[in-house]
What does this fold into?
Amino acid sequence: MANEATENRRGTANVRNANLTSSFDLSASLDHSVQTRIFKIIVIGDSNVGKTCLTFRFTGGSFPDKTEATIGVDFREKAVEIEGEKIKVQVWDTAGQERFRKSMVEHYYRNVHAVVFVYDVTKMASFQNLKTWVQECDGHRVSPSVPRVLVGNKCDLVDQIQVPSSTALKFADAHNMLLFETSAKDPKESQNVDSIFMCLACRLKAQRSLLHRDVMREDGRLRLGHESEPKSTCPC
Ligand SMILES: Nc1nc2c(ncn2[C@@H]2O[C@H](COP(=O)(O)OP(=O)(O)OP(=O)(O)O)[C@@H](O)[C@H]2O)c(=O)[nH]1
It folds into this structure.
């Protein structure tokens, strides 16, 4: 069971597909002072799509009254508990504007564990630009096996939606991503926003357990014990 340590809420994701690859290289950072693993998740996409608001909603549980364009990067962290393990989810809210990201891009992608691509469902251009964001990510040698999710934000603006779910789903499928359609603004969507990050955290934890088990298999000694580990209960 995946519990959020700070709020004890569970989210059910508005997930539109589920075909992520199941193995990837994960070497989560460790906060040595408290022996807590840290998962680094970066959030990228055009300026104004709502990256800051989504990260705020997840880490602080609210929608900010006012935001300004992110310069460089903002870090936000949230302590969560997954199957009894305390984990820090470290969210890197990156700048969408080119002039505010130039000097930081290398840092965004270094040792990243998961990537969240965001577009604005009311701005077709922000969806079309996703291919550029994917190229940038690939160009920084982020392994294709690092989990990626696609988030269509601002679903509360129902009368202004320009990007049909079916179109977004095709893109997500083609790029091996889960698709979430949600709103950082609508409080009713709060659990869905949480689910984006909790889903990734659960996958990262599960993948790491798999790697551990595989290592044990190679030396043969703990094989049976690890095969009987409980399976992950990832919300997606
Ligand atoms: N209606 C609605 N507005 C939103 C939502 N999320 C964000 N906004 C608004 O969209 C604008 C941009 O939000 P930000 O979170 O600052 O966007 P960003 O992607 O971080 O922008 P950069 O920092 O420039 O990359 C702000 O005016 C927010 O209030 C949402 O879910 N619904």
About this structure: The radius of gyration is 17 Å. The pocket of guanosine-5'-triphosphate is lined by residues 47-53, 67, 69-70, 95-97, 153-154, 156-157, 183-185 (CB under 6 Å).
